[in-house]
Amino acid sequence: MSNNEMTGAAIIVRALIDQGVEAVFGYPGGAVLPIYDEIFKQNHLKHFLGRQEGGCLHAAEGYARSTGKVGVALVTSGPGATNAVTGLTDALMDSIPIVCLTGQVPTHLIGNDAFQEADTTGITRPCTKHNYLVKDIADLPRVMHEAFHVASSGRPGPVVIDLPKDIQFADGIYQGPEEFDHRSYQPKTDPSTEKLDEALRLMANAKRPLFYVGGGVINAGGEASEDLVKLVRATGFPITQTLMGLGAFPTDDKQSLGMVGMHGLYESNMAMHDCDLMIGIGVRFDDRVTGRLDAFSPGSIKIQIDIDPSSVNKNVRVDLPIIGDAGKALDYMLKNWRSKKMKADASALDLWWKVVNKWREKRCLSYAPDKNIIKPQQALEHLQAAMEKDAREYYVTTEVGQHQMWAAQYLQFRQPHRWMTSGGLGTMGYGLPAAIGVQVAHPDALVVDVSGEASFMMNMQEMSTIAQYKLPIKLFILNNQWMGMVRQWQELLHGGRYSESYTDSLPDFVKLADAFGWTGMIANDPSELDDVIDRMLNTDGPVIADIRVDQKENCYPMIPSGAAHNEMLMGPGAVQDADVSAAGKALV
Amino acid sequence: MASVYEEQTHIEQIARHTIAILVSNEPGVLARVIGLYSGRGYNIDSLTVAETDHIAGLSRITIVTTGTPMIIEQIKAQLGRLVPVHKVSDLTEEGPHVERELALIKVVGTGEHRVEALRIAGIFRARAVDSTIDSFVFELTGSSEKVDAFINLMKPLSLADVARTGVVAIARGTEAL
User: Could you tell me the CATH number of the domain that includes residue A257?
Assistant: First the structure.
């Protein structure tokens, strides 16, 4: 047999290695056994065994988000593939590059309702960027390499390759990645320089400009973020970031107004509403960002730079759409702003900052500390301070709900790829498995999953994975015994009738930690908080810190349903403001 | 939690667009296109698909759709995003084009009705492609409006069955997809 003649399973593993894959997150089963056998025979890629395929997919996502590389998952047919669907949809919504290999029953049994058969390409068609069913061994090398290209280029996303078992056993010829070129898939990455020049002209003339940046900048790579920082500094404009964009620009910088949107900062949302030039980069005007569309930033000229033409004019009509890679656009804008010695309108900008700083004085994130009860915001502020002091680089994942929004508000990210959260799909149970991928990619880093007790329990089986690979993940549970965001909405919209939002019969998290070989600790009142955080960070191995927080605390500011950016609810706490509308008060 | 944002209040003009899509002729490609339409709530008024270049493995899909300008723009952008899609062309927007539809129409009847059906078919230049002593199958080619008109006239003349291909369309002049 020549060097390139091998079985389908060997082709698959060889292609993964040639694509630079180092970690695969998976779960074996009948329809992928030949691939697992090939994995057994080699030492290049390391397999991480999850405890449920849903966890494997989120782990691959965490790996991808924290590295910018393609995350790889491997699952069996039928239930393996259907369990992967949530992670695939999550990755599609947040533009995360994933290649997911699924086993399939042998080709002659497809359509026969065979054991563990599911129409995987049919099921995953709407939740992947693209998918393949390989029915001919001759197609296999091309499909493997093409999948990586599709997943990682243009607007990144998940790709499924469905692999019938007979194809894994069949003999074929391996071909390397360089031998293929895609016929139809050619995403446009070079932005129009005329349009970028126009954008620069608008920037130089703006009176109340605002950068609005999102995950697209992070996906464009580290240089895009560096160029963004330089451009924002050179212009002196304020900048706001979406949930996905946190870390594209240092969130604690004096030019940063923090997160925008439903639970964004007051100054961010007010600036969005009142700006006269919005420079959107790698954003998609999501409904959580815009609030009521017909009242969204009524007086602004809107620039949108995005690699995906379908992101433009989807929700909001923009005045200057620029299709292309955010990194290339930022590079051009920075170079030309400098070389053409362009300047912002200094006096107008000065006035604009005065307005913005007035909004900042509202201190929308202030809260009322309590002597006896830990406030969730307080827990996160203390966590932030402790992570600052820690010598390790910190990475944070989250689950979904109030704790996620508080983490977005109170934690600081100064670099891209440090913040992994399920934004578009809002997948509870994301954070713990995602942390696995992050810690695998960054073995020496400090990886914290900021969690709620309800979300954590959606994928808590992955504690076993974490124990197996000795991943020192820190699980920081803001335990309020409620599905907090559900409860908050029930208060807001359903007369405080708490239908099924109380998490009854919670386990003893310290004992749970012990059962999985983790270390468990609990903080019941504010006096214990710092000690628990300190011990959590300084304990070797994985830790659950059960932080018992105020059960009644809600997340503010909040743009309530159907409201505009300038109609935020500031909350019932320390920032009881006179200008909360009567309707808002009635709701809160 | 469902989003409870209010619908936009201003109404944009809804228009009919004929869109031609050149795709790789591979398994599932039609499912991708129609799944995109159903998943995103777009309308399909007419759909035709057939391989047009066997050597290159290309198929042409023609879809007639309706929507506001913003929706039509979205439809085209979303179609363009599909990996096996080579080209998307909005024939309605890109200048004059020819649209044709073929229909097979069965009329069952005898006596006056039968004679009248045959006479109207002559006016519409429909060809009888099958005949028994009490039925005709007419083949009619033309715009959708012409086919509609013919079918309406056949209704009182014992129209029994209709098969339509849906619209195929091509740009006038030298432009090619």
Answer: 3.40.50.1220
Give the chain B residue whose CA is nearest to the CA of A486. Answer: B1
pLDDT at position A1 over 70 = no
CB nearest B8 (choices: A129, A155, A294): A294
Are A385 and A477 found together in one domain? yes
A15 and A159 in a single domain? The answer is: yes
Token pair in block for residue A24: 């695969």
Q: Do residues A354 and A387 both lie within one domain?
A: no
Question: Please, which pLDDT band fits residue A182 given cuts at 50, 70 and 90?
Answer: confident
A392 & A541 share domain: yes
Looking at chain B, which residue has its C-alpha nearest residue A316?
A: B70
For A488-543, give the secondary structure using H, E and C. Answer: HHHHHHCCCCCCCCECCCCCCHHHHHHHCCCEEEEECCHHHHHHHHHHHHHCCCCE
Taking an 8 Å cut-off on Cβ atoms, the answer to whether B31 and A122 are in contact is: yes
Per cent of chain A over pLDDT 90 is 92
Domain end marker among A145, A176, A207: A176
What mean pLDDT do residues A567-578 have? 62
Which residues in chain A have Cβ-Cβ distances shorter than 8 Å to B8? 293-294
Asked whether the beta carbons of residue B74 and residue A310 sit closer than 8 angstroms, the reply is: yes
Collect the ranges in chain B with pLDDT lower than 70: 1-11
Judged against a pLDDT cut of 90, whether residue A169 lies above it is answered with: yes
Interface contact flag, B5 A292, Cβ < 8 Å: yes
Q: How far is A317 from chain B (nearest CA, A)?
A: 8
Place of tokens 């191995």: A541
Closest residue in B to A156 (Cα–Cα): B81
Domains of chain B, start order: 15-90 (3.30.70.260), 98-171 (3.30.70.1150)
- Which helix (H) or strand (E) segment holds residue A247: the answer is none
Residues A209 and A99 in one domain: no
Q: Is the pLDDT of residue A223 over 50?
A: yes
Instruction: Supply the mean pLDDT for chain A.
Output: 95
Mean pLDDT to the nearest integer, A140-168: 97
Provide the residue range defining the domain that includes A245.
Answer: 193-360
Task: Give the active site residue among A22, A116, A207, A528.
Answer: A116
Write phi, then psi, for B159 (nearest 5 degrees): -60, 130
- What pLDDT is stored for residue A183 in this prediction? 85
The last residue of a domain, from among A307, A334, A360: A360
Mean pLDDT of A134-153: 97
Is the CB of B32 less than 8 angstroms away from the CB of A317?
A: no
Number of structural domains in chain A:
3
Nearest chain B Cα distance for residue A193, angstroms: 21
A19-24 contacts at long range (C-beta below 8 A, 24 or more positions apart) = A19/A70, A19/A144, A19/A145, A19/A148, A19/A177, A20/A69, A21/A45, A21/A70, A21/A72, A22/A46, A23/A47, A23/A48, A23/A63, A23/A72, A23/A437, A23/A440, A23/A441, A24/A48, A24/A72, A24/A73, A24/A74
* End-to-end CA gap in chain B: 44
Residue A120 confidence (pLDDT) above 90: yes
**Is A40 a catalytic site residue?**
no
Mean pLDDT of A35-45: 97
Which candidate in B3, B4, B5, B34 is best for mutational testing of the A interface (most A CBs within 10 A)? B5
Which of these is catalytic: A6, A38, A48, A53? A53
Catalytic residue among A41, A42, A115, A343: A115
Question: What's the pLDDT score for residue B151?
Answer: 98
Phi, psi of A222 (to 5 degrees): -60, -35
Based on the residue annotation, tell me whether A165 is a catalytic residue of this protein.
yes
Verify that A225 and A127 share a domain, yes or no. no
The yes-or-no verdict on residue A582 having pLDDT over 90 is no
Same domain, A325 and A408: no
**A117 labelled catalytic:** no
pLDDT tens digits, one per residue of B7-42: 444 567 999 999 999 999 999 999 999 999 999 999
